[in-house]
């Protein structure tokens, strides 16, 4: 755990979050500023800064994807959804503990803003 990391502190229960699902290696919780009717963040318990670091830990990466799929099931996103990993400055990443955004619950429009 990194004490200065917001999402490590959510994993530890030091900062409250609306938990949707938890496994031994992942936590899924609602985004504080949702961009769609369903907007859940899926994170590994272990601190990895971004998806590049997560990819170096294939078991953790697989667990994050499995939890994302489970969240879609729990949230009833039967008509589809998106899984997004914002990465680095151009990707608009703001929190440097890797997280998959699971968004859905309505048609999401063009894949990128400005399209
Ligand atoms: P990023 O831009 O890094 O991909 O996404 C960070 C996300 O974390 C944003 O969608 C933001 O709304 C969410 N977020 C930031 N702080 C908190 C918080 O304290 N709690 C929760 N649940 N979400 C947060
Ligand atoms: Zn962290």
UniProtKB/TrEMBL annotation:
Gene Ontology MF terms in the entry: catalytic activity
Domain HIT positions: 6-113
Residue ranges annotated as motif Histidine triad motif: 97-101
InterPro entries: Histidine_triad_HIT, HIT-like, HIT-like_sf
Active site: 99
Protein name, as recorded: Histidine triad (HIT) family protein
Pfam families (UniProt xref): HIT
């Amino acid at each position: 755990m990194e004490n200065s990391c917001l999402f490590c502190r959510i994993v530890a229960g030091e900062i409250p979050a609306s938990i949707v699902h938890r496994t031994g290696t992942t936590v899924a919780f609602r985004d504080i500023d949702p961009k769609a009717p369903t907007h859940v963040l899926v994170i590994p318990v272990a601190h990895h800064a971004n998806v590049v670091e997560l990819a170096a830990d294939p078991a953790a990466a697989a667990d994050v994807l499995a939890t994302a799929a489970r969240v879609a099931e729990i949230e009833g996103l039967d008509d589809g959804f998106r899984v997004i990993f914002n990465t680095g400055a151009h990707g608009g990443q703001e929190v440097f503990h890797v997280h998959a955004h699971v968004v859905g619950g309505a048609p999401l429009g063009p894949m990128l803003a400005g399209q």
